[in-house]
Structures are given as structure tokens and as C-alpha cells.
Amino acid sequence: MAYDEDLANRIRELVAGESDVSEQRMFGGLAFLIGGNMSVAASGQGGLMVRVDPEATDALVAKPHVRPFEMRGREMQGWVRVDLEGLRTKRQLAPWVRRGVAYARSLPAKG
Asked: Per-residue pLDDT tens for 35-72?
């Protein structure tokens, strides 16, 4: 399954004012990097991958339409997946993009 082009465009609009943004295809999706650190991605499996503070992962997956991000069958702390049902409007999508961007910005930039 290819990533959702509409979702990628909606993310692109939300990060347009950010500095040091780049896009990179990865994991079958399109990731948005801030200073070289992944912040969010239009996932190849559908929905949105969001990089978050690992300490916040458990609280976030309790929210509607949010589940742990799994890689090779293992849940990854610091990453969540938000299903499309929870991203239908800008009002739903924007806080997730802001959260991912803020966390990526908190990390040392990659050269």
C-alpha cells in the first residue's frame, strides 16, 4: 500500500512555515524531517506515524484512533500511529503534526 498523497499534502501545508524541513521516503511512506530527525510521516500502512516523547507513549495510545507503532512485531516507545479516522480535519491533524515537530526539534540536529 502506498502512502496517502492527500495526507502528505495536508502535512506539507502544516510544516510549510517550519525551518530546516525535508521530506524523505522511508518505510513505504513519506517522512517529514526537522533538522534531520523524523517528526511525522504519512505511513505506507495508512494513517500517520508520529514521533513523540517516549515517556508520553503510553498516555497517547489511550486516546481514540491512536495505537502503538510496531516494527517487526515489537512496540516502539516514542512512536505512535494515528488512524485516518482521527485525522479527517485540520483541527485533528494539526496537534499531532505540532507534537511530532516539537519533539524532533528537541533532539540534536543531524548533519
From this structure: 999 999 999 989 999 999 999 999 999 999 999 998 88
Range of the domain at 51: 5-106
Q: Do 13 and 5 form a contact (C-beta atoms < 8 A)?
A: no
Q: Are 97 and 87 in contact (CB under 8 A)?
A: no
pTM of structure:
0.94
Whichever domain contains 12, its CATH number is 3.90.1150.30
Listed residue (58, 25, 57) closest to 41, CA to CA: 25
CA distances from 32 to 5, 14, 62, 63, 87 (A): 13, 11, 25, 23, 17
